[in-house]
Write a structure and sequence with these properties.
- The protein is α/β, with parallel strands linked by helices.
- Helices cover 43% and strands 22% of the residues.
- The protein has helices spanning 6-23, 38-51, 65-74, 88-101, 114-120, 138-148, 164-175, and strands spanning 55-59, 80-85, 107-111, 126-131, 149-157, 180-185, 191-196.
- It has a seven-stranded mixed sheet, sandwiched between helices.
- β4 (126-131), α6 (138-148) and β5 (149-157) form a beta-alpha-beta unit.
- α2 packs parallel to α3 (65-74).
- The protein is globular and about 40 Å long.
- The relative contact order is 0.14.
- The structure holds S-adenosylmethionine (SAM).
């Protein structure tokens, strides 16, 4: 991925350094940024460009690092991201980072619990759902995620190889679903990809 504008590349590098320093040691889990890796950002951007993805739902924004990759990728396609985050402190940081990148116009950041949002979201409204929040919730959310995803749409789940036991139940259910074609992509912390049939 070599087409990042210099200003966005600098901001992403700054956030990577911040995340590494902040998350190091005995920082309480709720205060960690837990950002995706840069190569995961590159993978998501390539996937978005390859599939012409315009309507993106992200679950777990943290301070907005991953959202910036999603926004960078979909901006030339005229896309939009809705992203969910329940930590008020992280919402404030994410908003600031979206503005610093000049990408705030294509991002809707919803503060609150993702479960409530997902149960009310429109059917078929997302081309891509990126799941990067509390992994214990994914299985219960699956009926909503499946409904929200449009035919031909893609779900990407982070941490599939870093925490395989925590996503095993979810992965097993999606793998067994005949409407989905799946793959485990060994990039970053492991991306489980599931594409809904047309
Ligand atoms: C791994 S971090 C997200 C990192 C982010 N995607 C990135 O790469 O920059 C997970 C985030 O999900 C949020 N989260 C966890 N459960 C949630 C829920 N039920 N609703 C909304 N946000 C949630 C946490 O507050 C945390 O900031």
């Amino acid at each position: 991925m070599s087409k990042l504008p210099d200003s966005l590349n600098s901001l992403l590098s700054e956030l990577e350094r911040f995340g590494e320093e902040n998350d190091h040691g005995d920082t309480p889990r709720g205060s960690k940024m837990l950002n995706i890796t840069r190569d995961t950002g590159e993978f998501l951007a390539a996937l978005i460009r390859a599939t012409g993805t315009r309507s993106i739902l992200e679950v777990g924004a943290s301070n907005g690092y991953s959202t910036l990759w999603l926004a960078f990728a979909t901006q030339p396609l005229g896309g939009h991201i809705t992203t969910l985050e329940r930590s008020a402190a992280k919402v404030a940081m994410a908003r600031q980072n979206y503005e610093r990148a000049g990408l705030q116009g294509l991002i809707t950041l919803m503060e609150g619990d993702a479960g409530e949002f997902l149960s009310n979201a429109d059917s078929g409204s997302a081309d891509l759902i990126f799941l990067d929040s509390n992994r214990a919730d994914y299985l219960a959310w699956w009926p909503h995620l499946k409904r929200i995803l449009r035919p031909g749409g893609t779900v990407v789940v982070d941490n599939a190889t870093s925490h395989p036991e925590e996503v095993a139940g979810f992965v097993a259910v999606v793998n067994a679903d005949e409407a989905f074609t799946t793959a485990l992509v060994p990039v970053g912390k492991g991306e489980f990809v599931a594409v809904k049939a047309l």
